[in-house]
Amino acid sequence: MAEFTKEIERPLGQSAGPRAPRAASRFSGGQIAAALAVLAVLGASAMIAFGEKPFRKPEVVATPAPKPDAPAETGKVAQATPANPAKPASSRPATSAEGPKIIRVQPVESGGQAGIVIQDASAVGQNLSVAHLPDKALIEDSETGPLPIRSADGRRPFDVYARPWSGARGARVAIVIGGLAVSQTGTQSAIAKLPGEVTLAFASQGNSIGRWMQEARRRGHEVVMQVPLEPFDYPNVNPGRNTLTVDATPDENLKNLRWVLSRTTNYTAVMNYMGARFATDTEAFGPIMAELGKRGIGYLDDGSSARSVAPDLALKDGVPLAVADTAIDAIQDRGAILKKLDQLEATARSKGYAIGTGSAFNVTIDAVASWVNEAKKRGIEIVPISAVANDPERK
What we know:
Layout: H1 29-50, E1 100-105, E2 115-120, E3 139-141, E4 146-148, H2 157-160, E5 172-180, H3 184-193, E6 199-203, H4 209-218, E7 223-229, H5 250-261, E8 269-274, H6 282-295, E9 298-301, H7 310-317, E10 321-323, E11 326-327, H8 334-351, E12 353-359, H9 362-377, E13 381-382
Parallel strand pairs: 5-6, 5-12, 5-13, 6-7, 7-8, 8-9, 9-10, 11-12
Antiparallel strand pairs: 1-2, 3-4
Helix pairs in contact: 3-9, 5-6, 6-7, 8-9
């Protein structure tokens, strides 16, 4: 076969020599590498989108820490947890204490060394938030009800149930409104309207004394109990049931006194109701004052008898004593009552303090409430009766 030297002269379908081989792939090596890189990026994106977020910090979920069953580590203050939280270990008020109390306070944030606070509960009055709760250490059970007593460590109801006051040396006025629990509406009005600094006195002949006492204490009032004592012209003038008399034996009078004392709790002192004759008889009054001293109760003399032997007996038996300067509502007229209150203010500015007594009449309650608010603006401090009593144990 002739060799055709020119491509154009070559017959169709014939080739001048062996055909050059075709390319092994349609893509170059660079194109393939680029494609693989894209696939790698897409795969990594899928892992991030559907995986467990390996590049994020895990979210912290706050959960309450379980209470440790084991004791706290050495050097830290452990707080005991009662087995039954619904039943506290003691129903004693939080502010009461058996003598000086050492309280260790562990800093919560720093976890540093515990601080120490020494508190003497007998040096301060009862916390008003729990003032209506009796301190069991100051109660003696009796057939007629709870009787006040000194605690085993010597604390007195006179101190524990006292309303706190500033302790300042300025002019002080103590006002005592008596006759509570006799009239339910009058008692409710007195407790609601009178400022907490006013002392309230409960009549032993009254009703629901325990309930009214708790309400009065919740509102900040210091309270005292009124004891019926024999007046002149007795029994024509009769203070009521269980009156202490001159002719009764000491045991009979003590029995009647304890009945009065058991009518309620949480009071600092007792106050005479009438008693012009009884208050002048040392033989009759002596055992009564000794009983008050033994139980840690104060005595408030309404000042109606100039011959009262109460000051001498109280000093002898260690009884805190307060003697009233005047009765503010002998005349039940608002103007007359306000005038008496102004006289108390003048007395307080002269000798440092003054004491006035009254009864739970509507006119008295309204006048006292109004006067107290104005007297405070003039710099007069209205204080409980315990703040102005002469206390032989604190001399």
